[in-house]
Amino acid sequence: MSAALLAPPPTRDPAWLRRLFWACAAVALLAPALVATEFKPWVFFEPENLRVTRRFLAEFFPPRVDAEFLALVAREAWRTVAIATAGMALALVAAIPMTLAATSTLSISALPGRMHALPFLLRQAVRWLLIVLRSVPELIWALVFVRVVGLGATAGVLAIALTYSGMLGKVYGEILESGDTQSSAALLRNGAGRLQAFFYAALPQNAAELTSYTVYRWECAIRSSAVLGFVGAGGLGQQMDMSMKMFNGSEVSTMLIVFVLLVWLADRASAVLRRMLG
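Now predict its structure.
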């Protein structure tokens, strides 16, 4: 046997120096951020703060479960789901055409190699539009639309539609470009159009991932619709804001439980759809 085979195994991780360097670099980068944000977790454990925390949490128990209030929460929960679903539907209507326009793997002009100037400029303009749409948080859009259309669910639907169209368009494009593009390219080279390449090649190959991300975004939209309610965009969040302003912790506790159930149901729906498409 060779000497290398007879040598004892190393007792020290050969990559420890590199890992130590990156750990120290992470700490060096994180420390200024913690100082800038005045992050002081020990403040939570001061006696006065602990007393306030205990009193605040005690107001959440027991949750309010009378029939009249539960009926109100059920209506607002349904309205929250409706806001998220309508906003996602509008976002899809806007995102799908932008995805088709921004995805280079579905471009006939990109087949010879270098893309022509006009399609390239159009694609870049669409991608910049996607950046603008997703750069503005839905909360800001909701504040704008509350001023424009007034209080209510319409502001929440429009806010989710604008922000999520940018998010969906970007991620859809990345999914389509990172998957297997040979089938799409073969269809395009044989005279198929962009829509044909999408429906017969790109979509079937990436349907599971696209569906999973869409349902995940719908779940995020449900959470967002609750937050948007705090600025007057309707739904469970608006009712929760009213209860918090009245210092009614039992009502807030009930609505939080219902909200957790909504997110759980969305997660179950996502799992079922993935199994169906898998």
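Residues 67-102 form the longest helix (36 residues).
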